[in-house]
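We now fix the convention by which a protein and its fold are recorded. The integers have meaning only within a learned vocabulary of local backbone shapes. A record is reproduced here so that you can trace the correspondence yourselves:
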Amino acid sequence: MSDENKAGEATGPVRVIDRRSFASDGTRRTPDAAAEEAAMAHPVAGSVVTPAAAPAKGAAPAARAAQPDPGASPLFQNLVVNLARQAAANLGASRHPLTGQIEVDLEGAQQMIELLEALRQKTQGNLTAEETDLVEGLIGDLQMQYVAVRSKSPGRP
């Protein structure tokens, strides 16, 4: 084989990196160079590797994973809104799709509110201001609705 591609441009040698953690006999082995090191050693033609774009060699995995995911916020917001809708439906905010009647399930509403509170607690410090406002606002509204529905409910204190 030739070291030139179809366009006539010279290409560098091909380097194979073995990233397997175990040898064929099942013993643990140290993988070859990591993907970041390989990219730094042989950058793609035309690309520029800047220190800000490449993680530090000794950087912790959490530091590399701390980059925000642009698709995460809409997915998180959708999750929170869907949980809040379920809680609101359990509080009688909408009619049952089959019977057409308003049904109240205080226990189900309480579970959804508690689930949103647990989500708020577990994501504390990891949300944007918009996400925090959404979660806090929905939980507060749902708690007020829960108290109002519970006080109107017969047999409840």
Remarks:
- Confidence is low (pLDDT under 50) at residues 42-66.
